[in-house]
Amino acid sequence: MIFRTPAFWYKKPGLISGLLSPLAGLYLAGHRLNQPKAPPKTVSIPVICIGNVTAGGTGKTPASLALYQLLTNKNLFFSPFFLTRGYGGIIKGPERVNPNGPASMWGDETLLLADTASTIISANRYDGAKLAKSLGADLIIMDDGFQNKTLQKTLTFLTINGKQGFGNGKLLPAGPLREPIEDALQKADAFILVGDDESGVRDRLPQNKPVFKAFIKPLEGSEIEPDRTYYGFCGIAHPDRFKKTLEDNGYKLSGFKAFPDHYDYSNRDLDKLLKRADKNNAILITTEKDMMRIDTPAMREQITYLPVHMAFEQPAALIDYIASHT
After folding, report:
1. Which residues on neighbouring strands pair with residue 218, listed in sequence order?
2. How large is the angle between the packed helices 60-73 and 315-325, nearest 10 degrees?
3. What beta strand segments (E) does the chain contain?
4. Comparing C-alpha atoms, which of 293, 319, 321, 318 is closest to residue 305?
5. What does the alpha-carbon distance between residue 83 and residue 123 come to, in Å, rounded to a whole number?
6. Is 273 helix (H, G, I), strand (E, B) or coil?
7. What confidence tens digit (pLDDT) does each residue in 48-103 have?
8. 53, 144, 134: which is closest to 107 by C-alpha?
9. Which of 46, 84, 90, 206 is buried deepest, with most CB atoms within 10 A?
């Protein structure tokens, strides 16, 4: 899907958000009407949901991957499976993901998950959970699904980006919210606050629920060539974050090109980027998620990517919290 995050979503409410407010009211009515009437179904293994209340870009997938590493490193669980609906792909499932792609079939974030552990894709989360359990899962880490009520969750974490927070506080399409903030805060068991709290969002979170701080960092060993110049590009919800990450970590940029979120790169797009990079004797660099959407081997060989991971400020406290609630 071609989608650029509107700049007005993260500014004080103004003319555009005001004009779109009636549509936001219709969105809310539709959201509530489409909720299933039956209670959520349960499976006999724990289900941890990593979700958000805004449309994209809060760090759900890095949080899911980081949580998997924490839990398996501490031997709290031995066979966690990821469960996702596979945004950007065409498979409805339930089906076990082939990590060899392509992204057009499975979705870019799905392939990132499947590169780490067994991953199930399923539009119906309960059916996906049943399949995971039948294949030997002892825990389900559900990437997204915060608004989905077909599967009973054991624990629900709401991820929030500290810079953007809840944006202008408006529902789609007048703002970035998928549901009213009050509903989301009540539903969440705990919060993952990603990055510094530049938006003051922490003051809005319930005082009786834990907040775990986390940061997105380049993976250790991701060394740059200090004498080289790079040309950056990406198609993510907040491309400015990737550009800043490159600059903060010493990458000298000759230019930067932002594409819509989940953009499907054509060879023509990549040819243009390569020509821009060559003009400045630069190396093309993108995100690992974007790299999943570049299928042509010849193109992949000419592009590098910056692998990142999520690091929790107090991982022991997070482990203890999960252990006591699952």
Report:
1. 308
2. 80
3. 47-51, 80-84, 95-96, 119-121, 139-143, 155-161, 190-194, 211-218, 229-234, 252-258, 282-287, 303-306, 308-312
4. 293
5. 10
6. helix
7. 999 999 997 899 999 999 999 999 999 999 999 999 999 889 999 999 999 988 99
8. 144
9. 84
